[in-house]
Amino acid sequence: MAQQVSRDADDHAVLACALVAQADLIVSGDDDLRVLKQFQEIRIVTPAQAVKMISS
Questions:
Q1: Tell me, what's the pLDDT at 13?
Q2: pLDDT tens-digit profile of 2-35?
Q3: What own/partner pairs with CB < 8 Å and gap ≥ 24 does 13-17 have?
Q4: Contacts of 33 (CB under 8 A, 6+ apart)
Q5: Across 42-51, average pLDDT
Q6: N vs C: which end of the chain shows fewer Cβ within 10 Å?
Q7: What is the pLDDT of residue 5?
Q8: Please, which residues bridge with residue 39 across strands?
Q9: Helix (H) or strand (E) holding 26
Q10: Which residues lie below 8 Å from residue 43, measured CB to CB, with a gap of 6+?
Q11: Which residues are registered as beta bridge partners of 42?
C-alpha cells in the first residue's frame, strides 16, 4: 500500500488486513477510518451501523 490512504498511517495495517482477508466490512469507531466510508470494495461502518445491519 504505497500511496497514502488514511490520514493515520497506523490504519494502513487494518486496511491491508481487510484486503488480504477479503472482508466485506471494517467495523470501527476510529474517525480516521470512518471518514473514508469505503476502501476499495470494503465498506467502513461504525459499530452501531454494524449492529443495525445485523439486526435487520
A1: 95
A2: 456 889 999 999 999 999 999 999 999 999 999 9
A3: 15/39, 15/42
A4: 6, 8, 11, 14, 15, 26, 44
A5: 97
A6: C
A7: 83
A8: 42
A9: strand 25-27
A10: 24, 25, 26, 37
A11: 39
